[in-house]
Amino acid sequence: MKIAMVGSGYVGLVSGACFADFGHDVVCIDKDPAKIDSLKAGIMPIYEPGLAELVGSNVKAGRLSFTTDLAEGIAGASAIFIAVGTPSRRGDGHADLSFVYAVAAEVGANLRQEAVIITKSTVPVGTGDEVERILTEANPGVRFAVASNPEFLREGAAIGDFKHPDRIVIGTDDEWARQVMTEVYRPLFLNKSPILFTSRRSSELIKYAANAFLAVKITFINEMADLCEKVGADVQDVSRGIGMDNRIGPKFLHAGPGYGGSCFPKDTLALLKTAEDYEAPTRIVEAVVKVNDARKRAMGRKVVEALGGVEEARGKRVALLGLTFKPNTDDMRDSPAIAIAQTLQDAGVEVAAYDPEGMELAGPLMPGVEMCANAYGAIEGADAVAIVTEWDAFRALDFARIKSLAKAPVLVDLRNIYDPAEVRAKGFTYASIGRP
Questions:
Q1: Does residue 128 contact residue 171 with C-beta atoms inside 8 Å?
Q2: How far is the C-alpha of 387 from the C-alpha of 79, rounded, in Å?
Q3: Per-residue pLDDT tens for 287-327?
Q4: Mean pLDDT, the chain, as a whole number?
Q5: How confident is the model over 75-102, as pLDDT tens digits?
Q6: Which of 78, 163, 209, 281 is most solvent-facing, going by the fewest CB within 10 Å?
Q7: Are 30 and 66 in contact, with CB atoms under 8 Å apart?
Q8: Is 263 known to be catalytic?
């Protein structure tokens, strides 16, 4: 089957490469000529483990190609995916659907064969209805159906998630569209991956509800961490204890500096706005958004306290290890590191930083922060070291070397990757999240 993927960003590129690896003929389309030229040259626009190799092998096999010409790209395609960005709209927080609707109009104007149009982008309830209206208006003479197929990919593990999903959600009431989507995902049907067919609107809401619920879990355990610090409990024990309950589960119960990334911040906000529009307010999600925003600066203040408080912190230097919102990605969107660095700078603290993949994107977002070539370059001359992102490279730091380079042996572990007793035994002042 020929598949067209309109949008060659994170979701479109990973999905397109994986569909090609399933044996489909895939064309990835993007309006950015520089991005398409880079992809043709084998240069990835994002960092995702294994993606360059996957793209390269399928290009070589002739199953994956790239173009800026939408009309050419969708010609003969039985399934056309819309995988463009839906960022938060400036001013009101609603999802900006202008890119989705622009693609729908262009697809409608250029469609010459029957096809299923699938929204892969994360979109609010009812978006598929508007996409259908746009397509009908643009090209009433061609048979088409509109389906919803949200993605559930974790950055840093996206290829594995796509090929071994915990579920595939397809929203359509059209039997022909269902048959086409079954063929698209046939390799996963054969692997017995759970596939849920729903109405289009249910499918659109599932994505938002899933991300909001995970954001709730993260924020809940972060608040429990704050309580643990006050009462002398250990949040890792609390997390383990409640996670063993199979009604709760252990995932997303790791205390830290708050969530960030491309999905949770914008999706929780978009869900809030949709709920407001339909007069069905989601008070829990509203609280989660506020608590998470406040937490990031609170983590900056935690580092200030480790420096001796506001009065003592001014003029000191802090090394931030890890800038991306999570490891194994170069994504800086809504990363806690941005707010932490700003809080430190507001307190008069000099900030140096290192991240294995994110510094190129971090630079413009963190003015005044010195970007260093490696972790120990950032640590040199520092009055405190703060671990912000749990990259594997930071899990076995040379503490003797840190002592020799830093002005003071102070470690603030915002990801709880070290054992407090072991670090203190090495002569460090150690602070972590939710542990005595």
A1: yes
A2: 44
A3: 999 999 999 999 999 999 999 999 999 999 999 999 999 99
A4: 96
A5: 999 999 999 999 998 878 889 999 999 9
A6: 281
A7: yes
A8: yes
Find out whether 65 and 55 touch, Cβ atoms under 8 Å.
Answer: no
Which of the following is catalytic: 18, 228, 263, 372?
Answer: 263
Q: Which long-range contacts (CB under 8 A, 24 or more apart) does 417-422 make?
A: 417/387, 417/390
Q: What is the pLDDT of residue 48?
A: 95
Instruction: Report which of 324, 317, 343 is spatially closest to residue 410, judged by C-alpha positions.
Output: 317
The Cα diameter of the chain in Å comes to 75
Q: Please list the residues that pair with 195 across neighbouring strands.
A: 168
**What phi and psi, each to the nearest 5 degrees, are found at residue 300?**
-65, -40
What is the dihedral sign for C-alpha 206, 212, 218, 223?
A: negative
> Taking each helix axis from N to C terminus, what angle separates 283-306 and 336-346, rounded to the nearest 10 degrees?
50
H or E segment and range at residue 354? strand 350-354
Taking only the tens place, the pLDDT of each residue in 121-156 is 999 999 999 999 999 999 999 999 999 999 999 999
Alpha-helix residue ranges (DSSP H) falling in 232-331: 235-243, 264-277, 283-306, 310-313
Q: What is the DSSP string of 251-267?
A: TT----S---SSSHHHH
What residue spans of 139-233 are helical by DSSP H? 158-163, 175-184, 186-190, 200-231
Residue 203: pLDDT band (50, 70, 90) is very high
Q: What value does the mean pLDDT take over residues 11-23? A: 97
pLDDT tens-place string over residues 262-289: 899 999 999 999 999 999 999 999 999 9
Q: Rounded to the nearest 5°, which phi and psi values hold at 21?
A: -70, -25
- In Å, how far are 64, 160, 196 from 165, measured between CA atoms? 22, 8, 12
Task: Dump strand ranges (E) for 36-190.
Answer: 64-67, 79-82, 115-119, 144-148, 168-171
Q: What is the pLDDT of residue 190?
A: 80
* pTM metric for this prediction: 0.92
Tell me how far apart the alpha carbons of residues 111 and 78 are, in angstroms, rounded to a whole number: 11
